[in-house]
Predict the structure.
Amino acid sequence: MYGLVDSSPGKAGPCCRPGPWRRPALLLSCLLLLASCSSIQFAYNQLDRWMRWQIDDYVDFSDEQELMLRQSLDQFHTWHRRTQLPRYADYLDELATRVESRDFGPPDLPAVEAELTAFWETASAQLYNLLMPLSATLSREQVRELAENMREKREESLEKWQKSPEKVEKRRRKRIRKQSERWLGSLREEQEQLIASWVHQVAYNPLLRDRQREKWQSAFIDLLWRRPEGYQEQLRDLIDNPQQLWSPEYRLVQEMREQRARELGEQILATIDDKQRNHLTRELRKYAGDFRALSAQ
């Protein structure tokens, strides 16, 4: 249900994307909350491989580091499959029952968001605990490589927007519509207009976002380079709470965006008809079934 609305301006998400250490958790969010792939079971079974590809895209690891990374991701995947997927399935089944019986409406969305956020944070904490020791093995050359790749990717993201801000707005509208259609089926004209109005009214400032990403990445690389006493705990704190580096201006912008996103989700949910309610019920139960099947593999 949280996937009815995506407040993010692009692939980087609503806050500054921290880099490779946070990317796996963001993928989990996409898989577990938005489920954008046509086959969640296929996507989930490729998760560890996708994670390795994403992290390798930032740093060239030695054979020993690759083995360490693979073992950590395999351990995480096994833990997540056995302990977390059954929890997701139970929650989605419960939610489906409430939707079907009309015991669920716009006022319930904040509670759903809080529950899904708790799922995400539990998985993220486990993943970071397993991956963090890898940071201690990075050489100076690898830290320089990581810094350069993070800079290049940040600049590429900004350049895409500067070339065609109109296309960015069009993609935002298309993404929100696609996510809503996944849960509700075909949208009515009223719902399409709600989405179009939201995208038009909720501003996206890529320059402000880029400055925050640069600030976060600089702090991240500085800790990896200096490695002061307790630096891994500091890295974890930086990853868990990137908002600590937000400027007052950026914090205000993000709070406003998130509030408007919640309002849009509530508005769309308030307008669903019986056909869309039935579609939502089926989708929730479908994903619950997928998660149970995956947990048993």
